[in-house]
Specification:
Elements (H helix, E strand, L loop, with lengths): L1 H47 L5 E6 L4 E5 L8 H13 L2 H14 L11 H16 L5 H12 L2 E2 L4 E2 L11 E3 L6 H9 L4 H17 L10 E4 L6 E5 L11 H18 L2 H15 L26 H14 L5 H18 L19 E4 L4 E5 L2 H19 L8
Antiparallel strand pairs: 1-2, 3-4, 5-6, 6-7, 8-9
Length: 404
């Protein structure tokens, strides 16, 4: 009897191993297919984008490419995506395009007009330095971090996101968590230690003030610069002040996972897990794990989806899975894989030559301000590509780079 049980156990183990290997091989092929498409699409997108500009989005209704100057907050995502594509494919034409786009972006290392230097300069020059090791890129990254630090406001223990306007006095948004990577990385690689302290203080103030008990976050906290008092908590891109704007939740998930990588502060890990719990246990999360643009959006299930939020989630979960126990890790990995498969389906992934050269369809930029609705977004593509690279390197090739 025991022999029979042992035999069954062995066969079950073999079957499970075979199943896992088959799944890995399927993901390997899916990633290869997506990256092959990315090469074609981004060569098309590059050809449609003037040499002194960056792509912003493609309007399929007007068949129009919309571009931006290099000061736009998303200007680093196109060159960043090119570097990610090059990292996987080693396509020299893609690398050349990436280098040309860096050349026009480099001057923004001195920009202090908003908090997005991390998006602009670390996603671009940071990836270039990581992939090539070219020391010429590092001074640009270092200078960018110092420029970002000028927006730190000690009285509120936070980096001011946008300049004051007629509606906001001193806004701090959840997105800002993403830009702390630039500060902390530079501090760890020969930069001023004050950059690390700013990143830590901002993360701690965000942890203390930005979140609701259920793990969801507000989008914007507005302060009075004269008194340093918190005036109100509101949204700029969600459906309502007390709603959960989907991409905001994704920024928080990614940001606190990344801060745990740097610090090993368990508070950040627990917050990332709590945010993940909110996102993936929410009753309004669709079965394909591509969120509605706001978890409380009116009109669900007919509300717009935001593939950019899903892409950020997938990339974040692949890192979060490295820091938790086996059971939680498996859950996060399976969830990330399901998101990647959804985004790789014909529902969200463009056909070759379509979608203006972008990869992902069905993203929402800022619906309340009627901007970039159900269209392409550069950061959607960037985090989708990052998720593909992370899955290939960390899960299939088992080369997770942040082991302590």
């Amino acid at each position: 009897m025991n022999t029979a049980k042992n035999i069954r156990f062995i066969f079950c183990a073999i079957a499970l191993t075979a199943s896992l290997l088959a799944g890995a091989q399927r993901m390997d092929k899916l990633i290869a297919r997506d990256m092959k498409l990315a090469v074609k699409q981004y060569k098309l997108l590059a050809a449609k984008t003037p040499a002194d500009s960056m792509p912003r989005h493609y309007d399929p209704r007007k068949l129009e490419w919309v571009n931006s100057d290099t000061k736009w907050w998303c200007s680093g995502f196109f060159p960043g995506s090119l570097w990610l594509i090059y990292e996987y494919t080693k396509d020299e034409a893609i690398r050349k395009e990436a280098e040309q786009r860096l050349a026009i972006l480099e001057k923004e290392k001195h920009y202090t007009g908003n908090h997005d230097l991390g998006f602009m300069m670390y996603c671009s020059f940071g990836n270039a330095y990581r992939i090539t090791g070219n020391p010429l890129y590092k001074p640009t990254i270092d200078t960018s971090a110092m420029s970002l630090a000028t927006r730190y406001r000690p009285a509120i223990q936070s980096i001011q996101s946008w300049d004051s306007n007629d509606k906001l006095k001193c806004p701090v948004i959840i997105d800002n968590m993403m830009n702390l990577e630039l500060l902390y990385w530079v501090a760890q690689h020969g930069g001023d230690n004050k950059l690390k302290e700013i990143a830590l203080t901002h993360a701690n103030s965000t942890l203390a003030r930005h979140f609701r008990p259920d793990g969801s976050s507000y989008h914007v906290l507005d302060y009075d610069p004269a008194t340093s008092q918190l005036i109100r908590k509101l949204t700029w891109q969600g459906t309502a002040d007390e709603s959960a704007w989907s991409r905001g939740q994704s920024w928080g998930l990614y940001g606190f996972t990344m801060m745990y990588r740097f610090t090993k502060d368990v508070r950040y890990l627990e917050q990332a897990k709590k945010i993940a719990g909110f996102i993936f246990n929410h009753p309004n999360m669709p079965a394909d794990l591509v969120p509605y643009w706001d978890f409380n959006a009116p009109g669900i299930p007919n509300a717009y989806r935001d593939a950019s939020s899903a892409a950020i989630n997938a990339s974040a979960l692949l890192e979060l899975a490295q820091y938790v126990g086996k059971e939680e890790s498996n859950y996060y990995l399976k969830t990330a894989e399901k998101i990647i498969r959804s985004l790789s389906s014909k529902t969200y992934l463009a056909k070759s030559g379509a979608n203006g050269g972008y990869l992902l369809m069905h993203n929402v930029g800022n619906l309340p301000f009627h901007s970039e609705i159900d269209t392409t977004l550069t950061y959607a593509d960037y985090y989708f590509l990052e998720a593909l690279i992370r899955y290939q390197q960390w899960i299939l090739d088992k080369k997770f780079p942040y082991n302590s």
